[in-house]
Design a protein that fits this description.
It contains 25 helices and 24 strands. By secondary structure, it is an alpha/beta fold. The protein has a 24-stranded mixed sheet, with no helix packed on it. The radius of gyration is 27 Å and the shape is globular.
């Protein structure tokens, strides 16, 4: 289609501004597909790209000359041979010269040889993510150290990385500013010490779950520019270790730790996460007295959190914006009263499983916390319809979690729908009082809703799904265990919500092939689907997975109406794009070796009902 004449009057700069004001990727994609002018601009100005198949890389690099970020994390067939073949022919290596950031997370087939090729092809490389690469060790770290301009490196759970590899990176990449070593269990004090000597510009360091001692903290204390330090699960570090941070690290602003008694001199901290620690009222007194600039504190699953301690904390830290009190089950309305009174800029509050809270807490939040955007009330038995009416005054809410709140009904939900029209995510998991009338209210008031969990809301029927079909922006929907929905409801939902990318229908046993055929016809954007324990047949399954051209993750457990041959044909129909599939364990012995080998070649991860996992993408050998 030719571009409309009016667009010829607009400059490229104006057209780019139009693109930049579209917040949703699907909207931008639709515009690029419908208009050549926007397609041309996208090709010339796109800076990020995520690819699924490596053979397309050369063509895409030519098409997008200004790429800065290349993501190969969902491209499991990437290995040394592939990289060498793709980047060593003629001028192909030159197309990578503008790349500044590489995402190689879980690219298990890439070893030192492939990394050397990538580093040579990307002379301006500034950031690399090799997290969860099961074969990444010292040789790979040595190859990575050739990128002397690196400033940001993530190596989480690279279990073969030792002090030797870390030393290579530290010596070769002296400009490092961000480094994450979480779960790199072979790293010791020796490696951390050398890192701190060779990389004085570090601003962000994560050593969580490393077997390091206070000697490492002493070395970290010499980093004058360090702003963020994460050291959760460092069981060999004692309170004395934090004393080294008192006299060093003058720029430290964020700390994640369970060591609390040496915070007196860390006055510049604005974020503290001490999830799972044992605390007392004196702990909050210390924090409140010395960390006046706090905007965020994480206290999830902390033992010893009381109303008195929280009052002490929030009264001293009026700038608090993010507060996580998950499973702090001793707090009452008094604590929320103090939070609402002192923290007028509160944006996020999580009080999951705080069962002593009542509707009064919601009244206080609705009266004072008018900027609140994120509220988690999961499993708070005191939440009821009256409380939701009070809460509906928080009109800026974007995310509301009410899972396991069994005392709410359509009446309370209608108050939220009427006044909180900006909501993007709503969790109603096992809210047994919610039915079709509640969905009617949501469909009329929450038109921007993208993520909705209705699992085990057994009062929902086909009528409710027909209402829900009017929420056109819905992309992630969980309907697990809804035994009263059938083909008619699913058909209406699929026809109305064409942006669905994730759908959970586990235990929706009354949906038959007719409903699934509608899903195959309308829901072409689905990336993930859970059909476990559904009544779909051989024909329905083959039709569905064959038509879902973007499907990457399928859960297909206990499909009693599907034969082994049906599974075989269905997997053949989608094996090119499938990245994860969950099946009954017994099927592994019944499916043909040919289909299993094909899945292996495509890098598919197969899981079975017993939780055993086969990482085919981690096996040795060349990709097919």
């Amino acid at each position: 289609m030719e571009s409309p004449p009016i667009l010829s009057l607009l400059t490229d700069d104006l057209l780019l501004q139009v693109l930049s004001h579209l917040p949703d990727d699907s909207d931008r994609k639709s515009l690029r597909s419908a208009c050549r002018a926007f397609l041309r601009l996208d090709s010339l100005h796109r800076t990020q790209l995520r690819i699924l198949r490596p053979e397309f890389l050369p063509g895409l690099l030519r098409k997008y000359p200004k790429l800065e970020t290349l993501d190969l994390s969902v491209c499991p067939r990437v290995d040394d041979a592939t990289m060498t073949a793709l980047l060593s022919r003629g001028r192909r290596g030159e197309w990578m010269r503008g790349i500044k950031r590489l995402v190689l997370s879980r690219a298990a087939g890439l070893r030192s040889g492939g990394l050397e090729v990538l580093v040579r092809a990307c002379p301006g490389l500034e950031a690399v993510d090799v997290s969860y690469c099961c074969g990444f060790g010292d040789r790979e770290a040595a190859a990575l150290s050739g990128a002397v301009g690196l400033r940001d490196v993530r190596m989480d759970k690279c279990l073969d990385l030792s002090d030797v590899g870390l030393a290579k990176v530290a010596v070769g990449c002296g400009r490092l500013e961000r480094l994450s070593l979480k779960w790199c269990l072979e790293i010791s004090d020796l490696g951390v010490g050398l890192l701190c000597k060779k990389c004085p510009h570090l601003k962000h360091l994560d050593i969580s779950f490393l077997k390091v001692t206070s000697d490492s903290i002493q070395a970290i204390g010499t980093l004058q520019k360090l702003e963020v330090l994460a050291m959760a699960g460092c069981g060999l570090v004692d309170d004395n270790g934090l004393r080294f941070l008192e006299h060093g690290c003058p720029s430290l602003q964020e700390l994640s730790t369970t060591l609390l008694h040496q915070l007196k001199e860390l006055k510049n901290l604005n974020r503290i996460r001490i999830d799972g620690a044992r605390v007392s009222d004196s702990t909050f007194q210390i924090i409140g007295t010395n960390c006046k600039f706090l905007v965020e504190i994480g206290l999830s699953k902390c033992k010893g959190v009381t109303d008195k301690g929280l009052v002490e904390l929030v009264s001293a830290c009026p700038n608090m914006k993010i507060l996580n009190l998950t499973c702090c089950d001793s707090i009452t309305d008094a604590a929320v009263s103090a939070i609402a009174e002192y923290c007028r800029s509160l944006l996020s509050l999580k009080v999951e499983s705080c069962n002593l809270l009542t509707e009064r807490s919601l009244h206080l939040l609705g009266s004072s916390s008018l900027l609140l955007k994120d509220l988690d009330l999961t499993d708070c038995s005191g939440v009821n319809d009256a409380g939701l009416e009070y809460l509906s005054k928080c009109s800026e809410l974007l995310c509301l979690k009410l899972g396991l709140c069994t005392n709410i009904s359509a009446k309370g939900l209608s108050h939220i729908a009427s006044n909180c029209s900006k909501i993007r995510e709503l969790d109603l998991y096992r809210c047994t009082g919610i039915g079709d009338d509640g969905l009617a209210a949501l469909s009329s008031g929450c038109k921007k809703l993208k993520h909705l969990n209705l699992s085990y809301c057994n009062e929902v029927t086909d009528r409710g799904l027909q209402y829900l079909s009017q929420v056109e922006e819905l992309s992630d929907l969980e309907l697990r265990g809804l035994v009263n929905i059938a083909d008619k409801g699913l058909t209406a939902l699929a026809a109305g919500c064409k942006r669905l990318s994730a759908l959970d229908l586990k235990h929706c046993e009354n949906i038959n092939d007719s409903g699934f055929w509608s899903l195959a016809y309308y829901s072409r954007s689905l990336l993930q689907i859970n059909l476990s324990h559904c009544g779909i047949s051989d024909v329905g399954l083959c039709m569905l997975v064959g038509n879902l051209s973007q499907l990457q993750d399928a859960k297909l457990v206990n499909l009693t109406n599907v034969s082994v041959q049906g599974f075989e044909l269905a997997l053949r129909a989608c094996c090119v794009r499938l990245k994860k599939v969950k099946l009954l364990a017994s099927l592994g012995f019944l499916l043909s070796p040919e289909i299993l080998n094909t899945l292996r070649a495509r890098g598919c991860r197969i899981r079975n009902k017993l939780g055993e996992t086969s990482f085919f993408s981690c096996l040795s050998g060349s990709a097919i």
